[in-house]
Automatic annotation (TrEMBL):
Domain Integrase catalytic: 521-687
Matching PANTHER family: PROTEIN CBG26694, PROTEIN NYNRIN-LIKE
Protein name according to UniProt: Integrase catalytic domain-containing protein
Superkingdom of the organism of origin: Eukaryota
GO molecular function ontology, one term from the record: endonuclease activity
Keyword Nucleotidyltransferase: yes
GO biological process: DNA integration
Organism lineage string: Eukaryota, Viridiplantae, Streptophyta, Embryophyta, Tracheophyta
Annotated organism of origin: Centaurea solstitialis
Keywords from the UniProt entry: Endonuclease, Hydrolase, Nuclease, Nucleotidyltransferase, RNA-directed DNA polymerase, Transferase
Amino acid sequence: MRIRPWVSHVQVVPKKGGLTVVTNDNNELVPTRTLTGWRYYCFLDGFSGYFQIPIDPEDQEKTTFTCPYGTFAYRLMRFGLCNAPATFQRCMTAVFRDMMIEDCMVVFMDDFSIFGNSFDACLNSLHRVLARCEGSHLVLNWEKCHFMVTEGIVLGHKISKDSLEVDKAKIDTISKLPPPTNIKGVRSFLGHAGFYRRFIKDFSKITRPLTKLLENDAPFIFDENCISAFETLKHHLTNAPIMVPPDWDQPFEIMCDASDYAVGAVLGQRINNHFQPICYASRTLNDAKENYTTTKKELLAVVFAIEKFRSYLVLSKIIVYTDHSALKYLFAKPDAKPRLIRWILLLNEFDIEVRDKKGAKNLAADHLSHLENPDMDSGGIEVIRGKFPDEDLNMIKTVGEDTIPWYADFANYLAAGVLVKGMTHQQKGKFFSDLKHYFWSNPYLFRIGPDRMPRRSVSGLAAWNILENCHKGPTGGHFGANLTARKVLESGFYWPTIFKDAHVMIKSCDACQRPGNITKKDEMPQQSISVSEVFDVWGIDFMGPFPDSQGNKYILVAVDYVSKWAEAKASPITDARVVVNFVKSPVCRYGCPKAIISDRGTHFANYLLEKTLKRYGVHHRFSTACHPQANGQAENTNRALKRILEKTVDNNPKIWSQKLEDTLWAYCTAYKTPIGSTPYRMLYGKACHLPFEFEYKALWALKKVHLDDITSGRERLINLHELEKLGSLAYENSRIYKEQRKKWHDAQLKEVKVFKEGDKVLMYQTHFKFSPGKLKSRWIGPYVVLKAYPSGYVDLLTERGQFKVNGHRLKLYHKDDPVRNGKV
């Protein structure tokens, strides 16, 4: 082509493997945060992704380049264009936007990550993505695609269900780099290392000598401090810790602290009551911020942590630990400085709870923020120096809490005259006010209670053992929390949280969880069956046995869930043949329903019935075992028919089979509150003509029987309109009735029971028959919850396999060690 004003020379730089690196020039958020925590992954990679995007013909000349073979222009988007990454990312987002919203895949440039918590879910998402790629003519590089794996490399990170790690291949390349010899080399090295700064504790401290080289007018002197920082940073990268994925149902904890030169923060969560890190963050302070007061620096550390971890914290509960107790009261201070007010307004966007924790207990953030480690009076706790491995981070709670009893300050003052340093005037006043109730009798501390009785102060495991003896020891008796706590006080022991700890113990006591029965207050929230048309869903059930009547002992009942229309047949036995013959009758007269609901008896759960229903295209749904409410309409109809029969057999129960037809007639012509009419009227659009209406001359009996064609047609048309109107009114009445019943039912519940996968539960066994005086419990288990359904059903795992049960018969089983879990 001819020379264009946009022509430029080209310089080709080959890359190993012929692949080209895609840069993140549009500052798209690296999606590793949402990728961790899934069981299965599929990783797809676009083939020459940019070359799949055509360039507008009017702009093609702007890509003109010259080489020894001539002058050329690109028709497809090439690498190196300013807006190419942003354009490609927008294109991929537009193609897969709905799947990204459904949380089944993540797209970053030409890397597609598909995930799921089950093999089938991940495979289904993969099928949809490949179909979308085919429909969008998007070509993939099969050599770089991986399917149905449990872990993989994504954007320099190794992700899996339980962890997030650095890519060792990337780190090996960085670890072999020689020390930089100029400013550009320092900036490049810090850029590469900064990509993994979330894994590096004290990143700001380690890189401080290197960042000083980047200051304006600073001479480039790569001295021993710089070399030490360079090697230390490479060591931290090659030994980076493993981060845990966030649990979005649990609160996040932030440990933050500030020193003279930097602020640091650690984001984590409690897993089995042990703090596990999710991400580290730190930053050095500039000259202006170094002059802030201590309160401003501590609040700045909190603001920095919230902004840094914002993507994790939005709509989540946040617990912030700080060693500056004044921050707890700063939120309610009306006359704070303008800068503090702005920061507080920023924090008010989040659900934050600030807790005071001394610096010695807040080890992680304390170590991140202190660029220098002068000796501190730690009150018997070892001063933090040098490295801070992950093992120490996981033991923060042990060092900060378990080894320091709650009465340590009182004991130190009474035994040795040592007063805690740094207390405010108000804190000292409260300390000496409380001190009046204690006295020291070597080697124990005693507290004098309101009843003037001295009680020994205890904590930790000793306190728990005393509480256990008072509750389930030989003289315990398994009394309630208040009586158990009072028995401890009567025994001469004391600690501040004795009543709270007693409630924790009672809740986790195995023997106390098993007695008792279930009531309506223990039921699950009511779930209604949604039915759209008459005869779409039938409920079917057997009644009996009854006294022998002409050889019959049972009644087989079927009822339509919408119109409440019932069918019934007397039968001598309950077997599959009786059910099959009975089902054919309503199917032939009213059409094939969508579903039939029954219990799990062998007369319903058998091959013969399933074969018949399959031929008619009917879905057979079973109610859960020992929970007849799942087929509630059939149970209600059974009670109604039985009540009518009891009152019509005239003290001769053996004639009930002769009265069954009249009973059905009476039932179907009775007003039903849920639909606002009778089943007969809803089905046929008019009232049923009863025998006594002839005798007493009802209006319809007085009308002329023979009508001309015009009048008859007009009457028929009116009846059809009335039937349609009657059906709509019945549906609306049924909806309102179900909503009111659900509101009333749910208001009676003691609490809404929520079960999650992995929970341990006890199950109430209704078929156990105990003789009077038997000291046995109907609660069996515990069993493990495999899956909980929104409808209230729960899949349980036992030694014999798994089965489904209604949540009404379950309650959570609490079995833990409150001492190890930090509850005592």
